[in-house]
Amino acid sequence: MSTATLTRTSPNRAVLRTELRLFGREPAGLFWIVVFPTVLLVILGSIPSFREADKSLGGIRLVDAYVPVTVLLAMIMSGLQSMPPVITGYRERGILRRMSTTPVRPAALLGAQMGIHGAAALCSAVLSLAVGRIAFGVPLPRHAAGYLLALVLAVLVALALGALVSALSRTTKISNAIGSVVFFPMMFCAGVWLPVQAMPGALAHIVAYSPFGAAAEALGQAAAGDWPSWSHLGVLAVWTLLLSGAASRWFRWE
């Protein structure tokens, strides 16, 4: 990252532009965040049994239940698998330390990374909703405002979790290891292997207190036309505050 480039224009804007360009040069990251969740939805939706109403899901089809799952999968990929290695890599190579001697502050880079990965996750959500509607007749969320609120909170909690992983990891290898350990439980809670609606009562109750379990429930309720339960929204808000506070407490620029 060139210091001269950063100082010619607004520092924060220059950082954002540079990070966006670098992100666009990583096709793997773009694929796993933006494309893969929708590809998974298409594969699942192509299974005939997934397009039949299921009484255990309240009469909806499995493909209907998996749209919010793929939306959350993009956020998990973005927050746990894509963002932490970038930030820890900058710290490991001394880029954050060198930035402290320029008009740009390391916080600008962290903000740019969170903004870019959050935007990528939201683009993936729009793509999943569009493909689900066009290819499989999945209704668009009936309570748009409630769905949008749950979506934004889910993005924030995913980024806060990624920031905490970045804070706890001194090297890229460590961030990959921690991200992988957290990744699979979060996917389970989001309903990747079993939709939250189909989980047994006790398990569903426990999962609902996890960030992505609460997000799955909130998105499902809004998709069905109801305002998301305040308890689920509250769980998302509390997790966002706790994870953000922990990340801020333990984050080191060097």
TrEMBL record:
GO CC terms, sorted: ATP-binding cassette (ABC) transporter complex
Keywords: Antibiotic resistance, Cell membrane, Membrane, Transmembrane, Transmembrane helix, Transport
Chief subcellular location: membrane
Highest taxon above the source species: Bacteria
Gene Ontology BP annotations: response to antibiotic
Chain segments annotated as transmembrane: 30-50, 62-87, 107-132, 144-168, 174-194, 230-251
Topological relation to the membrane, as annotated: Multi-pass membrane protein
GO MF term (any one): ABC-type transporter activity
Compartments, record wording: Cell membrane; Membrane
Location of the ABC transmembrane type-2 domain: 28-254
PANTHER family given in the database record: DOXORUBICIN RESISTANCE ABC TRANSPORTER PERMEASE PROTEIN DRRC-RELATED (PTHR43027), TRANSPORT PERMEASE PROTEIN (PTHR43027:SF2)
Family of the protein in this entry: Belongs to the ABC-2 integral membrane protein family.
Name the UniProt record assigns to this protein: Transport permease protein
Organism: Streptomyces antnestii
